[in-house]
Fold each of these.
Amino acid sequence: MLLQLNNIFKWVQSGGQRIFLLKDINLEVKEGEFISIMGPSGSGKSTLLNVIGMLDTFDEGEYHFLEDSVHNLKEKHRSNLYKEYIGFVFQSYHLLDDLTVQENLEMPLIYKKFKGSERKAMVADMLDRFNIVGKKDLFPAQLSGGQQQLVGIARALISNPKLILADEPTGNLNSKQGEEIMDLFKQLNDEGVTIIQVTHSEKNAEYGSRIINLLDGRMI
Amino acid sequence: MLKNYIKIAWRNLIKNKVFTLANIIGLTSALAVALLLVMTALFELSYDQFHENKDSVYQVYLSNQTPRGLESGTSHPAPLAPALKTDVPGIKHAVRALSDDALVTYNDKEINLDAEYVDPEYFDLFTFPAIIGNAENPLSNKNSVAISEDGAQKVFGSIENVVGKSIALKLGKEEQLFTISAILENPPSNSSTDFDIVIPFKNHPEYASNIDRWDSQFHSVYVQLEEGVTPEQFEKNTQEFTTLHYQGSIENAKRDGAVANADGLYKQFHLLPIADRRFTSFASGAAEVKRTFPYMILGIAFVIIFIVCANFINMNIALSEKRLKEIGMRKTLGAVKRQLFFQFWMESLLVFTVSTILGLVLGNLLLDPFKSLFNTRATLEHVAQPNIIILFGLSIFCITLIAGGYPALLMSRLGTLHALKGKLDLGKNRLRNSLIVLQFAIAILLISGTLVLHGQIEFMRNKDLGYNKEQVISIPLNGKKDSYRVVELLREELKGNANVLNVSGADNNLGLGRDGSTMSSMMGFDYKGRGVVTNALTVDYDYAETLDLEVVAGRTFSREFAADSLSLVINETMAKQLGEEDPLSIRIPMDDGATTYSVIGVVKDFNFQDISKQVKPLTLFMNNGWDLYYAYVKIAPQNITSSFEAVEKAWGNIEPQAEFLGSFLDDNVDRTFRREKTMATIVTSGSILGILLSCIGLFAISMLVVAQRTKEIGVRKVIGASVSSVALLLTKDFLKLVGIAFVIATPMAWYFLNEWLQNYAFHVALSPLFFVGAGLLATLIAFITVGTRTVKAASANPVKSLRTE
Ligand SMILES: Nc1ncnc2c1ncn2[C@@H]1O[C@H](COP(=O)(O)OP(=O)(O)OP(=O)(O)O)[C@@H](O)[C@H]1O
Ligand SMILES: [Mg+2]
């Protein structure tokens, strides 16, 4: 089992009142699953994803990731944990504008303290695998949306994470580009990568092995 | 239309409250300080400019080729001025002038006044107008004197009915009656000559005995040239004259191996414009006119203004990036370049106008503390001149044009579509970065200047001057009694006091006393066919003991030897100059062989002059025919205050009429570098303000940069960056700029400070530590300024950073 959420609550205080963003979330994810989270806008999909990704905290409940109890971990250990096991993919790609494709891919490896020669090899590998060798010296602004998302996924994958979290990865793409990205996810999942994606599209949700529906911060 | 511009400008300023406030605070304080500094500088520069004939009146100085090189002197013999007038063509007036004290007695009251002994034509050359009495010629006869308003107040308590009154002046050993012929306006605060009373030169006690002597030099000479005559012509016209009148000393100079100047002359008269007097130094032998001090102050004022303007421009450009969308909108709505430009300019103008008004108010509020802190008598009148106001207005116009115009220009050139997208590549921020580099280069320059200045002052304060300055009080002998008698009486009065160790006297002070007077006394004689020049000091018994001078050979003057009035004690430099293996064997014939002096002792060199000067040859005489002017009292290191009071009390018993002006020698020494201290205060405050203002700018810029990079920071953290690596990334860019500034500023600072230190014969070593210290300090300050922002930004939750889209 990869991770387990038990009775997770998250709220914000507003005018003396608790506004719940997540309510009593219980979720178990096994390695190799491909899960789609769905729900209306504002239902807490991104919030849940961020909690799973350890970018955001929660107020109550337990979160186990592999052998670790995330709710008991210090900030530093938590960030080490997600650095090692989790990759993020965003709707608006979030590439670094001032860096080339190649440099964007290299960045996480630098932060994870890989050696220069290792980094070169891993970046070259990734460029090859995504068929974007010809684009390696271009800047994000010089790429189409689909290409940018390709780079975004490559960046998330480069340090071999066990889990990919994707928040509406196809939201800014046309349907053809979107399909390509979903095919890529399917392929990655077949290779053993666990994927959790947020999506609004029924069709894209079908790629997954399981669908979780959220409404007002509650799983239904 | 204009109203609309102002309205929108106002709204924009309100919207960016923090930046507007930062700008106004920065500009206001910078303008206020600059106002005060400019006032001080202009005041300094205005010295002696009020003399109506300043363009045709000169001070005469004589350059001498000596075996030691070029030396110049402004002290001249009594017959020079009349001879110049009769023998040299092109001279309208030649007058003698001598500053001295005069003891005035009126109705049993004794008052010491600053006196100026001058020839009657003095008032034709210098503009010191009379307000009551004989304005045409205040010194019309030998027994008339002119008194200033302050002088009249001191003596008579009023300026009414003073003209025509008689006062007694003690000139030399006698008292003499004089009639007040006129009351003069007080000399303005920017006059190099300051006096309470003006006395005809011929009454000076030294005059009668020196009337025809060309070898006794003791006063200044001023000339007014006839119209159309240039100083160069004067120099030519006096060549033969000089050869004739200074024949003897020219021959001596030749004999002693002096090298003639480029014109083949050994002595040459030169003229110094009277308005240059305050800024002239003869330290290197030739006259050097240097207005370093006022220009340095102006420089600091300019630099401070530059720093805030750079802040202003930087913030404006950075903020304008935020406004790209607005501008794109306006352009699609049909705004033209000119309108955009006016919009930006109006905002700048608004900020500057508010700051100028506040700056003027603040400057006025700070005026009095500033004047006492910086020890200046400048007033705002020195700034409130039409051309300066116009210049100021013009520079504001230009600065606002750049500050407002540059971003406007950049944006109005930008394509509409580009602007709407909200991306602006401002030449990789080159302008912003160069301005920051310049700001910090200036800051580093000022900091290293501050450090070196304080280093030099500490050095001067702590240097072993060769005498005991902590335990010795010097007292100007400003009473009526015979000076030897006063010293003797002091000995007797203080004999019973166990804390008083020694009492002596001399005819010169050490350092600068509370009487504010300095003098040097030189003499020359022939020794074994060679001319020798030495400083001369007349001392009383126990001089060396009182001052803890170290005797390196022989003995000092002693009561046990009856013939000591023909003995000499010399310093090591003098001994070296005389060049005898055994200095105690030296016999020196003087007064054409009428008397022979013998050297009885050699004292270790001590700094009897300013620390800026090398120790020169010095000869101590003991001759009670020559007056003493200062008494020295050495006290025990314990109970210093009560000992000082005891000395003051003793003085009161001996000279009840004369004010006690005694002071410790270390205070006297401190007083000699008052100028350096003022300079240090100005440079220090300048650098503190400069740094502070630079930091306001840097802080604002870092805030904007961090805001611009919020998304980037979030992304970097999500892909695994740690807080420290992100903070470092953001801070590094700024520290790089400080590094570049350091590289630029250090050689410049080194050069200027090295030049400055050359003015001091004894100075602190220009260690690299000063510059490393300045660099580190600037880096540290920049780091703290930027770091507070960047660390905060780096610690922010990336989820939030990424949501702000
Ligand atoms: N820090 C916060 N403070 C207050 N409310 C918040 C905060 N973060 C999120 N919310 C609220 O929580 C709710 C869930 O937000 P979330 O971004 O998870 O929705 P979402 O399901 O991803 O919606 P969308 O499909 O539009 O992306 C929203 O109503 C949002 O306004
Ligand atoms: Mg969302």
Amino acid sequence: MPRDEIDGGRTEHLPGGAEAKGGLSRRSFLQIAAGATGAAMATKATVARAGNGWSMGLEGVPREKLLWMYETMLKSRWWEEEMKEAFLAGKDGLYGAFHISIGEEASAVGVMAALREDDYIASNHRGHAHLVAKGGDIDKMSGELFFRSNGYNLGFGGSMHITDVSKGILGMNGIIGPQYLFAAGAGYSAKVRGTDQVAVAFGGDGSVNNGWYYSGLRNAALYKLPMIAVIENNGYQISMPQARTNNLVNLSQLGAGMDIPHETVNGMDVLAVYAVTQRAVARARRGDGPTLIEAKNYRYYDHSGLAGAKPGVFGAFGLPYRSDSENRAWMAEDPIPKLRRQLVANAILTDEEATQIEDAVRARVLQSLDTARNAARVAHDAALSHVFADTKVPASQFAV
Amino acid sequence: MAPKPGNYAVLEAIQHEMRRDPHLTMLYEYQRPTAVSPTGTVIDLHAEFGEPRIPDWGPIDEEWFVGGGAGIAMTGVRTIARVPSMCTLRCFELVFNQVGKLRHMTGGQVNMPLVIWQDASGRRPGSAGQHADAGQEALYAAIPGIKVVVPANPHDAKGLMIAALRDPDPVIFFHYSGINSVSVDVPDEGYVIPIGEAAIRQEGTDITLVGYGPAAIEINKSLPDLAAAGISAEVIDPRSIKPLPIEAINASVRKTGKLLVVDHGHETLGTASEIIARVAMAVPGAKLARSTFPDAPPPGAAEMITWMTPDAPKIVDAVRKMVA
Ligand SMILES: Cc1ncc(C[n+]2csc(CCOP(=O)(O)OP(=O)(O)O)c2C)c(N)n1
């Protein structure tokens, strides 16, 4: 994806390291930030421009919210990084699905920054950042990846199905498409119950080729449901570039035919995502129906699992379907140092404070992995419960 | 003739048939039709046959492969729709109300030479919920007008795929990933394993063991322990669920008097239920039992799903009790 298509040709100057051989070191998104004080000033871009790919400044965004964005992106980033390290180290016997969303934190955090705690999200297989941003408990997330009894889903779900109904997280999901139906349904429910809650569906560029996507959005438009569909377009459906799965360039265009407000935003800019989502949320709460947001971003790792990933190296390289330089180009746009530079340049944080926040996040993440390591294993026969509310199913595997 | 991985064997079958039939078309999602044999031979169907017979990739749109594939097939072009493993039932409605009915509903006018190459996960730890399923072939077998085959090794996969591709009627081919690594010789040339024909894997006199696909793999693993225990088991892999080769099973149970059906599908209304019901009617007095995955979705934790899966140790245990 040429940068031009995202921000109208504006480029940011990123100090050294971005083109380093063999990939960025895993601390280098900090190093990029550390050398960049003053490189980017908040612009006077209007919210309208954000939807056309302009970078947004932090004007008008409360300090608390900015700090929350920074810390939350870091929390998601480091939780996945440390989990990746644990998978690669192989000492914990980790197994199961693991779809890393590193690189995509700005869309998760930017969207969630515009939501209330009682709003709903319906997430997909690449949903760790959605969970963290919607207030998910990383202890329970780690527990679930370890399939331990302290996990969110008690070891039933693993990475791909983490759910926290109490926080409006209607779940990550291993199937592409139901997110749009669930979010439309949750929006319908808000109408039935007379609340002004909003429901957001998250999906990838691959998910728009699916009938359930149209059903969710079309019906949200028909019934003016408080629903927002967020397409996180990372350019690939597994290893297939978007051009091979769809004849569009900007997937937000799909809203036009359904007469649904739609826009494409720079998914590597948390403030831009926040700005367009705020507008969509206001529309939804007013009763004006759904919005379709396409956030263009990138995943620095492989689709699933750890091909091309190495311990201590940030990002996956040498994947057969994309170039390392493409990956590095997107890493050079990393949303975390981008926000950090703005926070420092605008005297919201000092450089030291920014580092302290990051260190504290990292320590908290490591603690959550330790908690999971020490948590009790699940009982094998727990498997027969939770099929129905109050009865167990028979153990039919034993023939006699 | 050499051992070949299951995926390669199936692509070899399709390549063979695509060379015979200049219109044979295949739609698929992300399972690119390329594979390498252990000797280094590469099959790349897209490179060999190109657009439009094999498009370069596909969207996440399973209804398109099956529904669009049915439309292609109705016009006389034999079609393969490859559907990914977590979507075994995504197109159930299309298969039930269209694919299976059209010939009958139109008084025999519509031919439906459609093969649904249905990938299937099978029971495995870690995937959880939607990516560790098995047994959905039984639901398709319940649909009039659909033939259902489930190979348990690459050899059978190739022969059943060729049979499916020569059948005038829609066939759903359940391809469990666990069969890919089963090591058996696969001839290079094309051959047919007739749909509806069972394989007697081992002759025996004490008990009849029946299972297909992943269950057949577990039965096979249990055989050394059973032999060591001095038990003579007759092992039958039906390979087709519809038409079900019930006569081979009945004949065996008449001889042994005992039947254990192993099924990685669920307990209620699975293939095991059907086999046992038919044998019960045909062979009065036989001792009948089944080992199935419980009526619960597959959980992720290894502790749970391993305990739930009818595997070799559970088979050995059940057989010992049945022949005691
Ligand atoms: C209905 C359905 N079909 C196929 C799959 C297999 N699958 C899992 S993720 C994926 C690709 C998703 O791509 P995209 O929507 O672009 O999201 P990304 O992985 O890039 O975040 C596919 C095909 C699935 N989970 N569900």
Amino acid sequence: MSRTVQSVERAAALLRVLSAESEPMALGQLAAAVGLAKPTAHGLLRTLVEAGFVDQEPTTGRYQVGSGLLHLGSVSLDLNELRSETLNWVDTLAARTGEEARIAAYRDGAAVVAHHVFRAGPGTQEMDTGRALPLHATALGKVLVAFDPGAARSVVGQPLDRLTFRTITDRSELLRALADARDTGWASAVSESRPELAGIAAPVRDRGGYVVAAVGIAGPVLRLCDARGLPRADLVEQVVGVSRSISRALGHGRAA
Amino acid sequence: MTAPQYVAALDQGTTSTRCMLFDREGRMVSLAQREHHQHYPRAGWVEHDPMEIWDIVCQVVPEALADAGASPSQVVGLGITNQRETTVVWDRHTGRPVHNAIVWQDTRSSSVLPAVAAEMTEADIQARCGLPLVTYFSGPKVRWLLDSSPSLRERAERGDLLFGTMDTWLVWNLTGGVAGGAHVTDVTNASRTMLMDLGTLDWGPELLAAMRVPRAMLPEIRPTVSSFGTTVSPVEGISLTAVIGDQQASLFGQAGFDRGDAKCTFGTGGFLLLNTGPTPVRSQHGLITTVAHAMEGESAAYALEGSIAVAGSLVQWFRDSLGLIRSAAEIETQALTVPDNGGCYVVPAFTGLYAPHWEPDARGVIVGLTSYVTKAHLCRAVLEATAWQTREVIDAMNADAAAPLERLAVDGGMTADNLLMQMIADFLDIPVVRPMVAETVSRGAAYAAGLGAGYWPDREVLRRHWRRAAEWRPTMSANVRDDEYQRWRRAVELAIGWGA
Ligand SMILES: Nc1ncnc2c1ncn2[C@@H]1O[C@H](COP(=O)(O)OP(=O)(O)OP(=O)(O)O)[C@@H](O)[C@H]1O
């Protein structure tokens, strides 16, 4: 493997120079330090600012290492913040489908529920915010494993527990289901965690395109699936639509 | 296929103005929103520029229509809801305000309160208009303005100046302004001016005299749901079918139409309203008597209101002034890392304590500090402060009302905080329920406007739109609750004592 990407190398060089410097640096200084033309360095720095790895002082225009880089590897999206930012959308999904809706993120080997909205209708329902759902047996979990490398790593070599007759316990079958999810942009789980329960979910992306959560609905198989036992297309469309709206609200696809 | 029809809501709030369109199922189909500037000319003074707000209205209304792909003819009615009490005075000939709007939070009118009290006792004022003599309400703000300039008073008396709360300013401009704009308000907004008699639902001559407000500058008071005219600008031909103050709108948006219905909004402040039906209930426990809504041709529905001055703003203070958290939502993350408050209590009496205490001189305290207390304990104490203040207002309300509240319907930005909602259920010992989509203020204005336009036949249809999104049930033992309440009350006494 000798081929490398030049702009990544250059960006890395800029970050190395910046992190060695205690004072913010001007564009000219930086460009000279890494041997680049000013416009080239400027383009790279602008991208790094967008990614949160470099900060630019508003008054002087000088650059320094960004707080995003300092926290890299230590912070993940706070679940309570995720709820605050997505509450209205998850409500909307529940309102449009009449089913219960959840948004969950990958934490410690599970899909952890950040926000839960009740299904329509009377009767007691339990809030399950904070609950850990199995990754391989729920639609929310499958989306996270399919799209979040951290979640994907966590299922490697772990046994796939059987929860129902339909739970996917065969690894190659799971890999096929995940590939399908990546192709279609959504996942389902029908009778896989509980016999009577089905779920449909889709990924939520942040500004950088990274999948930070999964949003979806759950309900009786009879309501969520058609006569052939497949998730109803209109419900899939609602789930995918809301996942896109949330991603947009988090900055995904916005022009830099 | 005929073009779909919508009902619109224009929500003129303290920080922003938004316009939303709703469909027949009560679902929001479009939203446009803009913030306006806050002006703080001196400590305790807060102003808005009425022209800036009108400009923003001229942007968001067409934007919301465009967002839904709707023409004005597809909008059957527009309802206006607004920050209450904020006072605008303008010249009827030029349409220009003579002063920035004096915002409800502004405390400058404290200088005229003694003069008002000299002309009419506080008890007499409260008996007539249901409100305690404090700086919030419009009457003292108008008096301050006219007292500040003899020429303004003279122009007001000649009938050249018009007074209005935000709803009145907007309706006047929407219906043509200097070219024949309607000078009107609704009973819910008028009930917050301190100038309206709660019995007659008309301007009270004695109150006007005490506040020195000339009758000539006042708008006509109409029922909440009635005809307020037709828009001329920024789009033509939409019927204005409802006007309602923001907290009353959120009660309406929660389908709180009938006696015994209540809601609490948790935003910057906290506002609890209980519908008391067709007769005004006079509080013996420090609550405000106000109008919930009035439909054309029906008698008005009244409400008891208890407000908490500092709720979400305490979280903001923790974030912005103390820098202990990066985002409002992080308060919950921090608080969840510890099982209790570590013996620490925060009483946020930043500008005194309001309902049910009415201690304007009380000041904030943090008590129970030991070296054991961490940031996480303080975060818990911050959330508990909102929950205990809610308990105090509910206790007062239960003491005034015929039957105790059996559950609390909530809305507002703080309902995103699950821990806080659980605390409230625990401290109140009743279930807390959150309806779907917390935008209840705009929804209430849309409901009222839709009823006015005949878009919905009756309130029963709207009641069926109410859907529970979440519910928190009490889990705290009575012993723990009572002990903690005891300690909170002691902390409140210290806050009152500190200011004395
Ligand atoms: N997760 C949370 N936990 C605690 N407080 C929160 C949380 N999220 C938001 N808040 C607080 O809620 C308040 C915002 O709520 P909201 O948007 O309803 O405010 P508002 O300004 O009163 O409303 P409006 O702008 O509609 O008039 C802020 O004061 C903020 O500190």
Amino acid sequence: MTGEVSVRVCPGGPLLVRGAEVVVDDAGERHPVTRPVVAVCACGMSGRKPWCDSTHKAVPAQAR
Amino acid sequence: MQLPRERGPISRHVIGSLVRTQDEAGPIAIGAAEVLDDGDAQLALWILYELHYRGFDEVAEDREWDLGLLRLRKTLERRFEHELRRAVGSVPVASGTGDVSAQLLELIAADDSPPVAAFLHRTASREHIVDFLRERSVQQLKESDPQSFVLPRIGGAAKAALAELQYDEYGGGRPERLHSTLFADALRAAGLDDSYGAYTDDVSALSLANANAMSLFGLQRRLRGAAMGHLAAFEATSSVPARKIAAGIERVGLPDAVAAYFHEHVEADAVHEQVALHDICGRLVEEDPTLGADVLFGAATCLHLAALSGAELLERWSGELEVAS
Ligand code: FES
Ligand SMILES: [Fe+2]
Ligand SMILES: [Fe+2]
């Protein structure tokens, strides 16, 4: 691991994060990263926050 | 693994040649009927492919490269691929130079597969869910293995992204988290046999065809684009259904280990979808634009076979519901 964290915005979907070891949510809770790449919910609707659970697909494009 | 039971002349020929002799397999004529939903042809192909995966207890390992068997495999594959191309050939895809991930998304959005996940979520009995797991076992116990054959055949960014995705499928360094192991855990928890190939005799021709399509694409360098398109469509149509299926499993009261496989896929495939669409297929086609058409063919094949399987299962289960009510 290079120590570099990369984030890619997936339009209408999550943030694709590589190189992070932990994701801290709004409440300050720390979620360890256990995958080589993770999808962090950006729509705010996931039932498994901070991770994307594809709920964003149920939201019409204009409302995102 | 034991050899499965024959389902007709072609699989009988393959099994007979594997058990009876060490000599090269002889030729056999293949009838004119479609192989796509023919249990005999699909089983023969499944056995021929398994020689490249785990093999069979009673079969010498060098039969993997038996020229007679390879010739038969080639004949069956040519027919299978031709039928698939004909079946999905009419899929409307935005033409022109648009990027392949946008075209893939369009293809996936237009998919109107039968609502298997919704049925499993709301209506299915425990037996239906067990039936679903059994049918899926022929592909899920070797989950991600067909795609691993593609790794040495591509390069650069697409290769790095495929390796990244596969590492996650293979448990990220933790054998107990291998997705194929999670599926085996689910089978056991549902009261099924989790040994590799345990249900080859029981599953439908279409369940074999779904598994075989991945091997068809994975084992031929020529079809690497189709393999990656298939992967992208598979990943992009997994997370939402997995959430519904997990809820259905919990509704009928099957043990947590059954739902755990699907919970993992809600989260993992939300990631894999993005990686497969953009980082694998997008970069692969950027590197070699001639692969674009096959990426779309592979994706369309995945959706087409899933739709056929879905229709088959829903029809089977609705028949049972009528009998029961
Ligand atoms: S971005 Fe996918 S659920 Fe929020
Ligand atoms: Fe998986
Ligand atoms: Fe996946």
